[in-house]
Design a protein that fits this description.
Order of helices and strands: EEEHHEHHHEEEHHHEEHEE
Number of domains: 2
Shape: globular
CATH class of the largest domain: Alpha Beta
Oligomer: single chain
Distance between the termini: 8 Å
Helix content: 25-40%
CATH topology of the largest domain: Ribosomal Protein S5, domain 2
Length: 284
């Protein structure tokens, strides 16, 4: 048996961090992960361009029947534009992509929420997420704005974002992640941030989240203030940091990049994404 599936999954940025309350909001961006999963002659799981990964292996075993694994080699190749470990949802994008590709190898009829459940379960099993990051997973999978209850695994709302928006991302070189459990100290304020998102006030929600996350995680707030001074619609820490993200129209992008250039790190620019993940190729 020989078959190959290629999936494109996009990244996301935080509107409201879910760790404090279990409820979160995120926005899809166009940075992407491409995953190819193939059934080939042989046995075992082969990673073409990375070391063996517990998260990915868990997803393979959760989605592909044991008999199929025993009688085939599962070849996996992942290419990512999303920096890993900087709060830009790389883990959710990769786990989603592998879960979707493996599911498609087994069955042409895909249940989106079943794919998400597999990816979230694997993230929890591999301890790469505290809440399961259902907000991140749904934003990567469906694009646009999402609001979720992570513990209930409920997509409360998904809404298209304006197409003419850009995320300007500062990926710091000299900062590391702090103790994320400190976010829970200010859970009442994160509830306020989520209520703003529920009301459709996404930029106010993101700005409040940025203040709270910067304080709790000890992430520099100066880049956020600088972006807001250059008329960003919103700015703040993405995920658990240390990346700082501003959202703006195209004519503000260069000004915000010039502000971020004053800080150690690399700068990425990505359009907002409204596109659902795609299965791009099936061979065999």
């Amino acid at each position: 048996m020989s078959a190959e599936v290629q999936v494109t999954m996009h990244g996301a940025i935080s509107i409201v961090n879910a760790i404090a309350t279990g409820r979160g909001s995120a926005l899809g961006i166009s940075l992407k992960v491409t995953a190819k999963v193939a059934l080939e002659n042989g046995r075992g799981i082969k990673f073409d361009n990375r070391r063996e990964d517990k998260l990915i292996s868990t997803i393979v075993y959760k989605t592909i029947p044991a008999e199929m694994i025993a009688n085939n080699k599962i070849s996996i190749k992942i290419e990512s534009e999303i920096p890993c470990g900087f709060g830009l949802k790389s883990s959710s994008a990769v786990s989603n992509a592998i879960a979707l590709a493996c599911s498609r190898l087994v069955n042409k009829d895909i249940c989106d929420f079943r794919v998400l459940d597999v990816a979230v379960d694997a993230s929890l099993d591999a301890k790469v997420s505290i809440t399961g990051a259902y907000d991140d997973a749904t934003a990567c999978y469906f694009g646009g704005f999402v609001l979720t209850d992570n513990y209930a695994r409920k997509l409360i709302r998904r809404e298209r974002a304006p197409e003419n928006l850009y995320a300007i991302i500062l990926v710091p070189q000299d900062e590391s992640r702090s103790n994320v459990y400190r976010l829970r100290i200010m859970s009442d304020f994160f509830i306020d941030s989520f209520k703003l998102a529920e009301a459709g006030e996404y930029w106010k929600a993101m700005k409040l989240n940025g203040v709270l996350a910067s304080a709790a995680l000890s992430v520099k707030y100066e880049p956020v203030l600088g972006a807001l001074e250059k008329h960003a619609l919103a700015a703040g820490v993405s995920g658990n940091g240390p990346s700082v993200v501003a959202v703006a129209y195209e004519n503000q992008v260069d000004d915000i990049k010039s502000v971020f250039a004053n800080f150690n790190g690399s700068i990425l620019v990505s359009k907002v994404n409204n596109q659902k993940a795609s299965v791009e190729e099936v061979i065999g």
